[in-house]
Design goal:
Number of helices of chain B: 13
Shape of chain A: globular
Radius of gyration of chain B: 23 Å
Distance between the termini of chain B: 38 Å
Strand content of chain A: under 5%
Strand content of chain B: under 5%
Largest sheet of chain A: none
Order of helices and strands of chain A: HHHHHHHHHHHHHH
CATH superfamily of the largest domain in chain A: MetI-like
Oligomer: heterotrimer
Mean pLDDT of chain A: 86
Structural class of chain A: mainly alpha
CATH class of chain B: Mainly Alpha
CATH architecture of chain B: Orthogonal Bundle
Bound molecules: adenosine-5'-triphosphate, magnesium ion
Strand order of the largest sheet of chain B: 1-2
Number of strands of chain B: 2
Helix content of chain A: over 70%
Number of domains of chain B: 1
Chains: A mainly alpha, B mainly alpha, C alpha+beta
Radius of gyration of chain A: 24 Å
CATH topology of the largest domain in chain A: MetI-like fold
Chain lengths: ~280, ~290, ~375
């Protein structure tokens, strides 16, 4: 008998050890930074791995007031919320049309949008920079919002189209018999029935844009227009070697994400993996 | 009816299609600040292939990254998924915990890993010291030999959880009876993995590999913050190089970086088409 | 040689509050075709999966050829199983599907090829060996699944409703092939189904389960003739056995509706309730006659009824009737030339030798065994 009790027990133990190790590896850095965020830099230079002795909560106040975090959060929120809203409506409309109406070129449009998913961002970034400068949208939140809508649009349409195409046709036929207009069909059938997929794309777009860095770094220069990732980078630059302070700054950026994640973990996971799970 | 797609098509035309075309147009011009342009034909392309060592360095680095990292990401993700599939306690909690890095922005991840790689007090060297391997200590991201691999490792930290979740979902979707049939056919967990599970979730794995490949071909944020492409171009990627040529170096020409971008666009396109062709499913799996 | 013994086997699923299988004991003899029969959710699959080793046994002893198997992993039990969904490996050809188990048991390639070819020939699969499951019809997939079990030449074959995904005609022909296969291989087989026709025609014995418990084990006709309780009585037979409330009278006789009749001959008098007590009276539709044949006329009792419906089935006619002085509708299977009309009053002949009595509360038979 190959599987005796003891080998099975051994296998179990090894397995659990691997799980524990990987958890340390994956979660450890967060704990490390959390503990550093509550310690002063001099304490940290004495020993980088000690637990906080006194909890320096005041560092959070200092980090917040001594920087423009308020602005960064506000800018990020404005840009991301308006981009996600616009994406949801524009994307859902397009997906609805592509999934429901057969018109010449229907599949071509879908294929073009789909193939955009593989474009490297460099192919558009320089000319986007030029165009925004020309239209005086460079270094404005509006310009960044428009670009954000454009970069997430293909994935949004792709995911929604896949879902909308699976809504039973009977529903639409019934609506037509009831005399709904095209517009009513979209708002009263596709949107409510497609809610799970829409929620998914909202989450996906929100997280991706909240963390977006490359376009922001190219298209935004002014301090008052920085989004959160730019702000964090700036904060790090300003604090130079003040490790303790930077940790606090990082935690300010991490905590909201973790809090939301703690409440909606399954939704977030599902949203983030939506493009990959078939 | 068509009204429904119009906004999307307009956005697409203005902010995706037009910029792509403009980049190609840029690539045969010299674009000076203030909009003065000068047609130079294929000069940039010639220059790039003939003289630009940094570009080739960037290409080598990016291709190394894109070649190795998907295997690491998906491999680790698959193994983790299998661990969780083996009915361990707290599997749900592990899954949620391992996914966290996916949600954190690259800026934060980059700073975090700069500290982990810090020579004096970083976790990496601290661990080496604590097991008595002082000689192995490195200035991880400060040395040309180790910098790229250190970045690849940090990048994998962020993405393994993502691949794990997707693999786990695919494994859970497999029909239980087929796995049981394999068990009756004398398969231990390893043979079950190699002969049954991997072939059956192959479409998912291919999907993940290609996604990871595309991601690595455009990698920018992490490099930009951690090393800025240095030391000695050892972590320069095509993305960082384009950015530098366009916005950092005072060459006052947007044409040349556009050429780099255009070439890279074609390379990515060919690679993805090639990969898709290579991994194409010769027939459906139905279960 | 394989004898499968289940000794007081129980199964509780983690998180389940009821026992899925509750204290089941039976033995499957060497070369026997044992059918596990019961309604949906009664624990048939669970029992079979415990024999296979796919589910752990919660308590009790499972042995094959006297060797306790409780903690032996599935792959070391030398068992083959055919699943309801066939569970073919979708990425392998039919040939590889059949050869896979042999390969994993390190059988030399030549021997393997020979075995697969032989079994494919036997199941008429030879032309399809190079195809993958998605290119096979349901019946062909089913035969590949069967072939995969046969090539292994296991000690015990397990089947979990292998025919339920086939259409009616194919099911009948495959059923007959399975019967032939069993005769030819002489192997021990355990077969789960909820189809009583399959159970009656295929099994050397059937084992009836209800709510996780084993109710009765015996040869098909034996179980049909002598059901252990009202559950088995109604579960086997189509239409099912008629059950009516009845009262014990002096004599002893038993009173059903207006009719008073002598005790059925098979009843065990010592287990009867006292005079005035209540029992459940059972009679199969085919044991009610419009005109009893001469040879059994003297053991029939008259049962006056009112006809409420007729269902002419061609070969025979079903009469829906209500015995006088009762509310309950029962079914009689009568000659196809019956002229009864709804509303008619007729007197049926009831074959007392074939009637059963059951305990009114527990439903357990009062017949002699
Ligand atoms: N994995 C499981 N976890 C918890 N309960 C289960 C599990 N599998 C089965 N059960 C329960 O155990 C009982 C017996 O299930 P089982 O599958 O053995 O029924 P069955 O007789 O095969 O039914 P069917 O004819 O529908 O296949 C059912 O009540 C079922 O809900
Ligand atoms: Mg079952």
């Amino acid at each position: 008998m190959r599987d005796t009790l003891s080998t099975r027990f051994l296998g179990r133990t090894v397995l659990l050890a691997i799980l524990a190790l990987y958890t340390c590896y994956s979660a450890g850095p967060f704990l490390w930074i959390a503990s550093m965020s509550l310690r002063t830099t001099s304490e940290i230079s004495a020993n980088a791995y000690a637990l906080p002795e006194t909890l320096h909560w005041e560092k959070y106040i200092e980090a917040w007031t001594g920087s423009n975090y308020g602005t960064y959060f506000w800018n990020s929120t404005i840009v991301v919320v308006s981009a996600v809203l616009a994406l949801t409506i524009i994307g859902a409309m397009a997906a609805h049309c592509l999934a429901r109406y057969r018109f010449p070129g229907n599949r071509v449009v879908l294929f073009v949008i789909f193939s955009t998913l593989i474009f490297p961002p460099q192919i558009t970034i320089i000319s986007l920079f030029q165009s925004l400068v020309e239209y005086r949208l460079y270094d404005t939140l509006l310009g960044l919002t428009l670009v954000y809508i454009a970069i997430q649009l293909p994935l949004t349409v792709y995911i929604l189209e896949g879902f909308f195409a699976r809504i039973p046709q009977d529903l639409y036929d019934a609506a037509k018999v009831d005399g709904y207009s095209h517009w009513e069909i979209f708002w009263k059938i596709t949107m409510p029935v497609g809610m799970p997929a829409i929620a998914t794309t909202v989450i996906l777009n929100f997280i991706n844009l909240w963390n977006e860095f490359l376009y922001a770094v190219v298209l935004i220069t002014d301090e008052s227009n920085r989004t959160l990732p730019l702000g964090v980078q700036k904060f790090m630059g300003d604090q130079l070697e003040d490790i303790g302070m930077i940790s606090t700054g990082l935690m300010i950026a991490i905590v909201p994400v973790i809090v939301v994640y703690a409440f909606f973990s399954e939704k977030l996971i599902q949203g983030m993996t939506a493009g990959a799970v078939k | 009816m068509i009204v429904f797609v119009t906004p999307a098509l307009l956005m697409y035309a203005a902010f995706t299609a037009y910029p792509v075309i403009r980049t190609f147009w840029n690539s045969v011009h010299i674009i000076r600040p203030g909009g003065r342009t000068e047609f130079v034909g294929l000069d940039h392309y010639v220059e790039l292939f003939a003289n630009d060592d940094i570009f080739f360095r960037a290409v080598t680095n990016t291709l190394t990254w894109a070649g190795v990292a998907p295997l690491i990401d998906v491999g680790v993700g698959l193994l983790l998924a299998l661990c969780l599939y083996a009915r361990v306690p707290f599997a749900r909690i592990f899954r949620v915990a391992w996914f966290t890095p996916v949600l954190i922005s690259y800026v934060v991840v980059a700073i975090l890993w700069m500290w982990i790689y810090n020579y004096d007090w970083g976790v990496a060297n601290m661990l080496l010291r604590s097991v008595g391997l002082e000689d192995w200590q490195q200035t991880w991201i400060g040395h040309p030999d180790t910098a790229l691999w250190s970045l690849i490792f940090a990048h994998a930290w962020k993405w393994a959880g993502f691949n794990m979740v997707v693999c786990l979902a695919a494994i859970h979707a497999l029909p239980r009876e087929v796995l049981e049939a394999a068990e009756l056919d004398n398969c231990g967990w390893f043979h079950k993995l190699v002969f049954i599970i991997v072939p059956m979730i192959r479409p998912t794995l291919v999907n993940l590999l290609i996604l990871a490949f595309i991601g690595k071909m455009r990698v920018f944020d992490l490099v930009w913050i951690m090393t800025g492409g240095g030391p000695m171009w050892s972590t320069e990627t095509v993305s960082t190089y384009v950015y530098k040529r366009a916005f950092e170096w005072n060459t006052f020409d947007l044409g040349y970086p556009s050429t780099v971008a255009a070439i890279w666009f074609i390379v990515v396109l060919c690679c993805v088409l090639g990969l898709t062709w290579l991994f194409r499913q010769r027939d459906r799996l139905e279960y | 040689m394989a004898v499968v013994t289940l000794e007081r086997i129980s199964k509780r699923y983690p998180g389940g509050d009821e026992l899925a299988v509750d204290d089941v004991t039976f033995t499957v003899d060497d070369g026997e075709f044992m059918v596990l029969l019961g309604p949906s959710g009664c624990g048939k699959s669970t029992t079979l999966r415990m024999v296979a080793g796919l589910e752990a046994v919660s308590s009790g002893t499972l042995a094959i050829d006297g060797v306790v198997m409780n903690s032996v992993p599935a792959r070391d039990r030398d068992i083959a199983m055919v699943f309801q969904s066939y569970a073919l490996y979708p990425h392998m050809t039919a040939r590889d599907n059949m050869a896979f188990g042999l390969k994993r048991r390190r059988m030399p390639a030549a021997e393997r090829e020979r075995r697969v070819a032989e079994v494919a020939e036997m199941l008429d699969l030879t032309p399809y060996l190079g195809r993958k499951p998605h290119a096979l019809s349901g019946g062909q997939r089913q035969r590949v699944a069967l072939g995969r079990a046969i090539v292994r030449d296991p000690k015990v074959f397990l089947f979990d409703e292998p025919l339920s995904n086939l259409d009616a005609a194919l099911r009948v022909s495959t059923r007959n092939e399975l019967i032939k296969l069993h005769q030819r291989l002489g192997a021990t087989m355990i077969y789960v189904t909820h189809d009583q026709v399959e159970a009656m025609t295929m099994g050397t014995r059937i084992c009836i389960m209800n709510r996780g418990r084993l109710v009765q084990v015996g040869p098909p006709l034996g179980v049909y003739r002598d059901p252990a309780d009202t559950f088995v009585a109604r579960f086997l037979g189509n239409p099912p056995m008629n059950l009516m409330e009845a009262a014990m009278l002096d004599g002893p006789t038993v009173r059903v509706g207006e009719a008073t009749m002598p005790l059925p001959s098979r009843v065990d008098p010592s287990r009867l309730p006292r005079t005035g007590g209540r029992v459940t009276f059972g009679i199969r539709p085919e044991d009610l006659y419009e005109q009893p044949p001469a040879d059994i006329a003297e053991r029939t009792a008259p049962l006056p009824v009112r006809v409420t419906g007729i269902e002419p089935l061609g070969a025979e006619t079903l009469l829906l009737v209500v015995p006088d002085n009762t509310e309950q509708e029962i079914i009689a299977r009568v000659d196809r030339n019956s002229t009864a009309r709804p509303g008619d009053r007729v007197v049926l002949g009831l074959d007392t030798a074939s009637a059963h009595l059951f305990d009114a509360d527990s439903g357990v038979t009062l017949d002699r065994h």
